[in-house]
Amino acid sequence: MTTLGTGVLRVRRWLRDHPLALDAALALAVFMAMITVSFIDTYAPNGPTFGARGPESSSVFVMVLGAVALIWRRPRPMLVLAATAGLTFVELVRFEPPTPVVMSTVIALYTVAARTDRPTTSRVGLLTMAALTATAMLFGSAPWYSQANLGVFAWTGMACAVGDAVRSRRAFVDAIRERAERAERTRDEEARRRVAEERLRIARDLHDVVAHHIALVNVQAGVAAHVMDKRPDQAKEALAHVREASRSALNELRATVGLLRQSGDPEAPTEPAPGLAVLGDLVDTVRRAGLPVEVACADRRPPLPSAVDLAAYRVIQEALTNVRKHAGPGAKAEVSVVRVGATAEITVIDNGSGGGCCNGDGGGHGLLGMRERVTALGGSLTAGPRYGGGFRVHAILPVEARTAEPGEPGTAGRTGENA
Fold first, then answer.
1. E strands within 315-404?
2. Cα 99–chain centre separation
3. Are 319 and 399 in contact (CB under 8 A)?
4. Is the pLDDT of residue 409 over 50?
5. Which of 163 and 42 is assigned the larger pLDDT?
């Protein structure tokens, strides 16, 4: 059975790839059917009798022409219909009793209905039905209401109906397939877009964490190396700060990388994302690194949405890191967080001489990452040199921004208690 099924599939596939051969086989089958029916005498006294009569040679020639025309029914459906309908007309007028050349017209009419549209099928079908039925009634020897004449009308009408139904079904299947393919493409594009957004968000988080803590480690390591010989106590304190900064960096890296774990991996950390609630710890770390920082925060009740809270924290973290790296010796920084109506304004300024962020033209991604993070929430960020020296970073974040979408960082809860 398996071998037989495989053979049938191969034959069907070959016929689908060679439609002309399939139409030639159909033409041969129609010719054999017409020859067989031509031996039946439908008007015999005892009912239809096989072998009571036989076709004339001219009738056989007409049937051969009608069958051969069907070979080109797919590429030239209207031309084939016109040819077979003409041969049927000749057969109805010339021969008595008529031979069944109308079979070829039925097949041609079905092809036209299956391969064109409904208006064309209606016009051509009605014209063919009316012309052939009228010819059979007017030129035939049988009464106009005879079964043979009504059969011409019925078979041509059925060919139109069946062909139109097949065409409608093909169109329906093609529409379903197209919608499925379009949905698949849309789903793939949406998945790629979400992956790209998630990669960008994680890259920003990693940059913020690594840049901030590594900058502090670098500063404290330099201090330790400078005072190691003369002031070992201060060197030990600097090394302790290095250890604390590196531990904080590892913890935040672990929390960020935990987002990349697959199902079945060990449980990811449940510690909430950093926010303004731990701003005091961030400022203390920067102060211990040697940068004086003053903080002015208005009352933040009710707390900021978690995504806005995280963005505010990251902006301050990156801005202070840039101040420490680029503002030069003796610089001071000021941080302010103020709620103004439906927005939260974060400002970080310094009085350094080196430019808080390389004047905005540095090769790093800190300023770009801050702007992307703020813009993603519907806010705005400006950064540039201050008049009289120093640098200023100012971010405006909408409190009711698009912060509750799944996959956004920190949507599990809200932070924002006073630091």
1. 333-340, 343-350, 380-385, 391-398
2. 58
3. no
4. no
5. 163
